[in-house]
Amino acid sequence: MALILGLESSCDETAAALITSDRDVLSHKLAGQEAAHAPYGGVVPEIAARAHVEILGPLIEAAFAESGKTLADVDAIAATAGPGLIGGVMVGLVTAKALALASAKPLVAVNHLEGHALSPRLADASLEFPYLLLLVSGGHCQLLLVEGVGRYRRLATTIDDAAGEAFDKTAKLLGLGFPGGPAVERAAAKGDPQSVKLPRPLLGSREPHFSFAGLKSAVLRARDAGTHSAQDIAASFQQAVVDCLTDRTRGALEQAAEATALVVAGGVAANQAVRGNLEALAAEAGLRFVAPPLWLCTDNAAMIGWAGAERYAAGLTDPLDIAARARWPL
Ligand code: KG4
Ligand code: ZN
């Protein structure tokens, strides 16, 4: 059994976790920066990087204290090395390098998307490769056939906005606050999803990809028309996103006959309407459905530690001069 320290700092969550290769999350610590970014209605990279510098050290200490372990007990140190806001990524990666150097333990540089992609295997020990994954976060919206650790076949991506980005922009347009996804979901619960006619970009088309920019423009028009409440627009928007995600995933299932399960991960996977509709789609296709618990959907360090554990077990460690990457496709 291996013990892994995982660090995450690619966006606006600072996180540290200690996790075993037996899926035991000994501790996971997370500090969000919502209050610091809320006045700007979105994440400000410079503010995020400075906040990571301040909080990451104390979080690592707290994670060790809670787990009862020390750096000497750790087998490998995993950190997000990209993609993300480069200043923040560098804070986590440089910290991991320093700890690796000081303790003579191996470094595992984790692709943040791989963290999301493997997180369902942390949540469910029986989930085997290959599985069809809908990865929906603030920066990405992809359908991937996950064939193994480090083996991802991309079946679809977004041609404009990511799904989470659409939620965040809609929240901003409707004045619902920041972060946008949970705010839209709360407002949608009080609205009628049939009330506002919104487009479903690419629905039913042979093209496998996603598109959300047109939907965002339609939300703006609906708001400016002034005929519907923010709750009704939010509910109609959420329904349109869910319809698009479900339709595109249904199409991808035809390209992924070997998939043993339908899996959803990433921040938008925390949305109950998204989860419910994909679960129904999996049932329709006769497939298992796996979605991580909500805390594991949004950014955290346990998933980075887990991806680190999977890579470490496969002998995939990295040199200390590995660079942080703002862009890094899976
Ligand atoms: O995975 P994540 O925490 O960070 C990235 O890697 O991007 O995803 C964050 C995204 C944000 O766009 C956020 O608005 C969205 O996930 N999100 C949600 C919900 N919770 C978070 N979107 C819809 N419904 C939610 N409940
Ligand atoms: Zn993420």
Question: What kind of sheet is the major sheet?
Answer: 5 strands, mixed
CATH topology of the largest domain: Nucleotidyltransferase, domain 5
The coarse overall form would be globular
Order of H and E elements: EEEHHEHEHEEEHHHHEHEHH
- The residue-averaged pLDDT reads 97
- Our Rg estimate from Cα atoms comes to 20 Å
Question: Fraction of residues in helices?
Answer: 40-55%
CATH superfamily of the largest domain: ATPase, nucleotide binding domain
Termini separation: 27 Å
Task: Output the strand order for the largest sheet.
Answer: 3-2-1-4-5
Bound heterogens, unique: 5'-O-[(R)-(carboxyoxy)(hydroxy)phosphoryl]adenosine, zinc ion
User: How large is the share of residues in beta strands?
Assistant: 15-25%
| Number of domain units | 2
Count of beta strands = 10
Q: Given the helix and strand composition, which structural class is it?
A: alpha/beta
Architecture (CATH level 2) name of the largest domain:
2-Layer Sandwich
Assigned CATH class of the largest domain: Alpha Beta
What is the count of DSSP helices, taking H or I runs of 4+ residues?
11
Could you give a short description of this structure?
Keywords: Acyltransferase, Cytoplasm, Iron, Metal-binding, Transferase, tRNA processing. It contains eleven helices and ten strands.
What would your notes on this structure say?
The chain is α/β, with parallel strands linked by helices. Helix content is 44%, strand content 19%. The protein has two domains: 3-117 and 297-313, Nucleotidyltransferase, domain 5; 129-294, Nucleotidyltransferase, domain 5, CATH 3.30.420. Strand 9, helix 9 and strand 10 form a beta-alpha-beta unit. It starts with a strand and ends in a 17-residue tail after the last helix. Zinc ion is lined by residues 112, 116, 137, 266-267, 299. It catalyses: L-threonylcarbamoyladenylate + adenosine(37) in tRNA = N(6)-L-threonylcarbamoyladenosine(37) in tRNA + AMP + H(+).
